[in-house]
Amino acid sequence: MQSTQASGSDIEEEEEEEEEEADEEPVFSGDPKGIARQMVAAEGWGADQFDSCLEPLWEKESNWNYQAQNPSSGAYGIPQSLPGDKMASHGSDWRTNPATQISWGLSYIKDRYGTPCDAWAHSQSVGWY
Which secondary structure element, helix H or strand E, spans residue 61, and what is its range? Predict the structure, then answer.
């Protein structure tokens, strides 16, 4: 019969690996709308914040195109950041990664308006957010 006992160092290594995994940022994947839906949920907002507010807001702003650029203002990406390089605070890949743009956009919305529905209401009343 073989022994299946683990040594103390094996257990410590496993615990360290689990701690490292817990410190990692969550990885969001899928199409931009799917990524945004995941991030909205991770923020603790209900599905209505995505379905009724964020989805139409960014549909209006960029048609959910991560390469969208406003020719007159220079606003860029899915959330139409102005200037676009503000999104570098969330990743150096801000020009090409929808998840980076969405993460920045949700932080902007949370800081400035509180929720996607508050941002959408502002956009509906004045034409921008």
Answer: helix 55-62
The identity of residue 31, as a single letter, is: D
pLDDT digit of tens for each residue in the chain (129 aa)?
554 454 444 444 444 544 444 455 667 778 999 999 999 999 999 999 999 999 999 999 999 999 999 999 999 999 999 999 999 999 999 999 999 999 999 999 999 999 999 999 999 999 999
CB 106 within 8 A of CB 39: yes
| Cα distance between residue 119 and residue 108, in whole Å | 10
Please choose, from the candidates 107, 108, 106, 123, the residue with its C-alpha nearest in 3D space to the C-alpha of residue 50: 106
pTM score of the predicted model: 0.80
Contact of 57 with 74, CB cutoff 8 Å:
no
Nearest to 103 by CA among 26, 46, 48: 26
